[in-house]
TrEMBL record:
It comes from the Bacteria. The lineage of its organism: Bacteria, Pseudomonadati, Bacteroidota, Chitinophagia, Chitinophagales. Keywords: ATP-binding, DNA-binding, Nucleotide-binding, Phosphoprotein, Transcription, Transcription regulation. PROSITE patterns: RESPONSE_REGULATORY, SIGMA54_INTERACT_1, SIGMA54_INTERACT_2, SIGMA54_INTERACT_3, SIGMA54_INTERACT_4. Gene3D superfamilies: 1.10.8.60, 3.40.50.2300, Homeodomain-like, P-loop containing nucleotide triphosphate hydrolases. This is DNA-binding transcriptional response regulator, NtrC family, contains REC, AAA-type ATPase, and a Fis-type DNA-binding domains. PANTHER family: C4-DICARBOXYLATE TRANSPORT TRANSCRIPTIONAL REGULATORY PROTEIN DCTD, TRANSCRIPTIONAL REGULATORY PROTEIN. Residues 1-119 form the Response regulatory domain. GO terms for molecular function: ATP binding; sequence-specific DNA binding.
């Protein structure tokens, strides 16, 4: 049973009709007292609450009622309905524990989708809440290529399993190289949207002047360089999932534009006056601390609350060192096939030693280290010495190739190295980032800084 709380009878009736047509049962309440009564009388599974239901415009009464609901029925998700003008009120509501907020006038499909997500999520939370510390069975999901069964990793996979089928927006946080993109793809592969596109966008690589054209597309002639029509990423992701990587790098004026499409699910193609509607699940990732960015005013608080209904934190590799042997084994097995060296193996002491290493670049760094050590060592059984040699060799080789002191400054060297790597990898940004030990976001920033042309590989 869904409880609709609004003092406006027209709103109550239309929401109730919409939900009934979609197969839900509803009851409604016109004021807080009646709302709390209904909550006692019925088994309520979801509440839709209009924040401005009171005659006062501050919305305080709505917030008070929300707090009361959270106290009496903490497991029941609440969806707020708010006006654009009261967006700060919606943020307050989300902080106070509301599940989602929808703007007035609402789009029926959007409201229904939020209802489905809220119900799906609370059901799966209830289901996984049963029984002592039960972990998901890997074989029930598509977790291909995701290695590790440390407690930290299992917790991540449990969350992915629980939330994949819902449409909840997910924010994946963690240091560079911890597998954020990999987890985003796992959420998609295990979702109901898996037969629709998965569109990856590296926001770190998109300048604010190009943001709209990249994300929403443009019509031929919309601006000087618009020689042909261009389809935007949101359109490509229609019915599917959009993965917004490096969201922490998004500039303020682009944040407003992104917020609007996430909020209203509508946008306009540049050069066209028609409003388009998009239905997409949003997964974001960042290695920045967004809360800090919100506090220092460089990331919009309302956008932050819009994207992080669910937060998945990927632990750094040093906090799940027990996964290292499995990861090494996985990479060695891949390399056996690539190089036709079926006897490749890593000795026990080396495995132990690897587990004590700090790996600031996390799994990406471990993977690079294993690959390069295999390439450099002629022996099939890799020992600590081989890995050490790789580390020293790395430094020595670099030493031999350095230009004379004074010939170049650090920035010039960096630029030259990036250009060489781009040439070597034929502008494949992902490969270049891997070889240079950078995250893609960092590499994109450098490419822009040095004006090095690149094709966005996403
Ligand atoms: N659990 C894992 N099992 C196997 N390989 C992994 C795992 N996690 C990450 N990797 C590998 O490590 C590399 C980095 O992963 P990924 O690109 O997903 O990290 P990221 O956190 O998105 O990095 P960045 O912040 O730099 O964009 C990839 O080659 C990926 O295949």
């Amino acid at each position: 049973m869904i409880l609709i709380i609004d003092d406006d009878v027209a709103v109550r009736t239309s929401v109730s009709l919409l939900l009934k047509q979609a197969g839900y049962m509803t009851v409604s309440a016109a004021d807080p007292r009646e709302a709390l009564q209904q909550l006692q009388s019925y088994e309520i599974s979801l509440i839709i609450l209009d924040m401005n239901f009171s005659l006062e415009t501050t919305g305080d009464e709505g917030l008070e009622l929300l707090a009361e609901i959270r106290r009496t029925a903490p497991a029941v998700p609440v969806i707020l309905i708010t006006g654009w003008a009261t967006i700060s009120l919606a943020v307050k509501g989300i902080k106070a524990g509301a599940f989602d907020f929808i703007n007035k006038p609402w789009d029926n499909q959007h409201l229904l989708q939020s209802v489905r997500t809220a119900l799906g999520l609370s059901r799966s939370l209830a289901a996984t809440g049963q029984g002592p510390q039960r972990h998901v069975r890997r074989e029930d999901y598509d977790f291909n290529g995701i290695i590790g069964d440390s407690p930290g990793m299992m917790e991540v996979l449990d969350t992915v399993a629980r939330i994949a089928a819902t449409d909840a927006s997910v924010l994946i946080v963690g240091e560079s190289g911890t597998g954020k993109e990999m987890i985003a793809s796992a959420i998609y592969r295990n979702s109901l949207r898996k037969t629709f596109p998965f569109v990856k966008v590296n926001l770190g690589g998109i300048s604010s002047s190009l943001f709209e054209s990249e994300m929403f597309g443009h019509k031929k002639g919309a601006f000087t360089d618009a020689k042909t029509d261009r389809i935007g990423r949101f359109e490509m992701a229609h019915n599917g999932t959009i993965f917004l990587d490096e969201i922490g790098d998004l500039e303020m004026n682009s944040q407003v534009k992104l917020l609007r499409v996430l909020q209203d699910r509508t946008y306009e193609v540049l050069g066209s006056s028609r409003t388009k509607t998009v239905n997409t699940r949003v997964i974001c990732a960042t290695n920045a601390n967004l809360e800090e960015k919100v506090n220092d005013g460089t990331f919009r608080e309302d956008l932050y609350y819009r994207i992080n209904l669910i937060t998945i934190k990927l632990p750094p590799l040093r906090e799940r060192a027990s996964d290292i042997p499995q990861l090494v084994d996985f990479y060695i097995n891949n390399l056996k096939n690539v190089y036709g060296r079926q006897k490749l193996a890593v000795d026990k002491d080396a495995l132990k030693w690897l587990q004590t290493q700090p790996f600031p670049g996390n799994i990406r760094e471990l993977k690079n280290m294993v690959e390069r050590t295999v390439l450099m060592s002629g022996s099939d059984l890799l020992t600590i010495d081989d890995f050490m040699l790789y580390k020293q060799g790395h430094v020595k080789k670099a030493g031999q190739q350095l230009p004379p002191v004074g010939a170049m400054d650090l920035e010039e060297m960096e630029e030259a190295m990036i250009k060489r790597a781009m040439e070597f990898h034929h502008n494949n940004v992902s490969r270049v980032a891997e070889t240079l030990g950078l995250s893609r976001g960092t590499l994109y920033r450098r490419l822009k800084k040095y004006n090095i042309p690149y094709e966005d590989t996403y």
